[in-house]
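Section 5: illustrative case.
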């Protein structure tokens, strides 16, 4: 009985140490962020940096309030978030389906393997003019750019995960007469679950890059449009504000995927 109590005590102490470490990490992250903005503001006011190019946190905040008041920030942010979520979901689903097909058919995987490598090495931005011709100048082109940037990476990473599953698992299932569908469902998919979640995290960033690049090229609305418009009229405060909004929303999306991962891992354990 004493041994059990002692073990519980050690476990509680271990959990408390983890919580304490997390609080310290959060505190230092907050201090670094506050120090960064304070230094930026001071450097701009004292002209250590060019305030026209680098702006300042106070100017960005004032512009943020103005854009909220006239409602334009809601419209541009809503368009970009809509395009990014669609590009993220469709790019991830399409990449996972292609990876599954390649795993299912070894012949197809041998045929398309070099093409995947070549397509992954190509600069996707070069497809921009082609997308404009195919999809026009609406939101479809930005969504398509988000899909193109994320789909090949998703395919390569998930397919590599499928191939790296311990072959002994597959041999055991085959000895019991399992079909290819059962092998995929019982061994391949569960074993590559961490890889799929990691791919989701990577795709959050890739989808944002794709959509912002797409909006650079064709859009008349969205945060990417605001960034390029700010450059054109030398309003770098608008550029910085748009980048800040992108950073905040991308962080929220990443945290949501991280939360999903923790819930799924907890459910599966």
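Designed sequence:
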């Amino acid at each position: 009985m004493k041994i059990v109590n002692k073990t519980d005590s050690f476990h509680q102490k271990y959990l408390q140490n983890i919580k304490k470490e997390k609080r310290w990490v959060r505190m230092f992250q907050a201090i670094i962020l506050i120090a960064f903005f304070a230094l930026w503001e001071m450097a701009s006011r004292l002209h250590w940096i060019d305030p026209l190019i680098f702006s300042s946190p106070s100017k960005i905040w004032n512009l943020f309030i103005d854009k909220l008041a006239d409602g334009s920030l809601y419209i541009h942010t809503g368009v970009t978030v809509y395009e990014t979520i669609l590009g993220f979901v469709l790019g991830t689903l399409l990449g996972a389906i292609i990876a599954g097909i390649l795993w299912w058919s070894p012949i197809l995987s041998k045929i398309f393997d070099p093409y995947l490598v070549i397509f992954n090495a190509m600069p996707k931005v070069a497809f921009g003019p082609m997308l404009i011709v195919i999809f026009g100048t609406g939101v479809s082109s930005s969504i398509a750019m988000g899909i193109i940037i994320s789909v090949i990476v998703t395919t390569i990473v998930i397919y590599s995960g499928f191939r790296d599953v311990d072959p002994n698992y597959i041999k055991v299932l085959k000895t019991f007469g399992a079909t290819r569908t059962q092998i995929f469902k019982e061994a391949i998919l569960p074993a590559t679950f961490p890889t799929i979640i990691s791919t989701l995290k990577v795709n959050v960033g890739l989808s944002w890059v794709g959509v912002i690049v797409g909006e650079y090229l064709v859009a008349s609305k969205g945060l990417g449009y605001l960034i390029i418009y700010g450059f054109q009229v030398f309003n770098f405060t608008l550029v910085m504000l748009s980048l800040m909004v992108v950073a905040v929303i991308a962080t929220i999306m990443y945290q949501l995927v991280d939360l999903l991962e923790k819930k799924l891992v907890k459910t599966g354990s």
